[in-house]
Amino acid sequence: MQLSSVIASPKLLLQFFISTIQCVFASFSFKVFYWKTGTCKGANSPVDSVAADGKDQSKDQLATTPTSVNYHFTRKCNYKCGFCFHTAKTSFVLPLEEAKRGLKLLQESGMEKINFSGGEPFLHDKGDFLGKLVQYCKQDLQLPSVSIVSNGSMIREKWFQKYGDYLDILAISCDSFDESTNQLIGRAQGRKSHLDNLFKIRNWCQQYKVAFKINSVINTFNIDEDMTESITELNPVRWKVFQCLLIDGENAGETALREAEKFVISEQLFQEFLDRHSSVSCLVPESNEKMRNSYLILDEYMRFLDCREGRKDPSKSILDVGVREAICFSGFDEKMFLKRGGKYVWTKADMKLEW
Ligand SMILES: C[S@@+](CC[C@H](N)C(=O)[O-])C[C@H]1O[C@@H](n2cnc3c(N)ncnc32)[C@H](O)[C@@H]1O
Ligand code: SF4
After folding, report:
1. Mean pLDDT by 10 residues, the chain (355 residues)
2. Is the CB of 173 under 6 A from ligand 1?
3. Separation of 94 CA from ligand 2 center, angstroms?
4. Active-site residue, selected from the candidate residues 23, 40, 77, 244
5. What is the pTM of this model?
6. CATH number of the domain enclosing 227
7. CA distance 251 to 266
8. Which domain of life is it from (predicted)?
């Protein structure tokens, strides 16, 4: 439409005015629609993100890709850590083939790292269920990183012989190098030594070429400890140090199976613990703020758990609705995931370790 002819004719002028308003309105409503649905719509869908405004597509796509997933396939455990935030609310475990199907869906959606956790992951089927999933993820799905977090009490050398090749990282949780403190926390099975297991597993990791990691929860019982010497001796690739976290319905509130309030420490005390261990170069600190929403957590039904409200709100299962729909309800904060160093060298072959 020529501008001169528009100005000359009042009818054309009116038409031009109406179409301009329509155009502005359409562009505005599209932006509002994208703003409301963009992050999830963009998930794993380059087509959707390109159609948006051509600017934030890669960012939106990244924000909802399940790059690193924690699958808590069982809630059962043989320990009784008083602060535990993933408790035995059910005894359900998926059939092996269903668990594999879910892991394949995640891999097809961009998963690069899987971490198996619990409950105690070595408890179910004496560690064979876990071993089969570890092997499947490395051999069939070819995931760059396969890891486990365990209390270490149920691991046998035979497991390493059978499945060690398929595992990149094994993290063992240890909150104290004083056996009586572990007993007080509940990080023990009966009178058995947690520390003997820890050192034994560290040696197996070296022998079977698995990267060894340690997780510690800092709480009122171990806050004054100096762990520098023991950690230096064990020499893990990473030492994750968590500030004890409360989750409603897990370790806090009326319906919870644990009462962790008496374990909770302030930000300042947590910082003092970190300062005391500043010479330990592999230490990776995780305050409550860093920890809460920076993990993609899948429960025993393969539902994402959203911790934004201070409890674990489940999505629908990825087995029923797929990853793309379920992940919208994960509450995952990708920025915090990156800020806490969630993405690191996680393939054992890339770690340049001396075995
Ligand atoms: C829930 S456990 C499951 C795996 C295994 N049973 C273990 O203890 O390592 C996973 C990790 O969460 C940590 N954890 C448990 N309760 C916590 C809490 N309240 N705050 C911070 N970390 C916690 C454990 O120490 C462990 O490193
Ligand atoms: S933190 Fe303790 S009680 Fe909780 S799952 Fe791990 S070993 Fe079991």
Report:
1. 48 51 40 36 34 38 77 97 96 98 97 97 98 98 97 97 98 97 94 94 97 98 98 97 95 94 97 98 93 89 91 93 91 82 83 65
2. yes
3. 20
4. 77
5. 0.84
6. 3.20.20.70
7. 17
8. Eukaryota
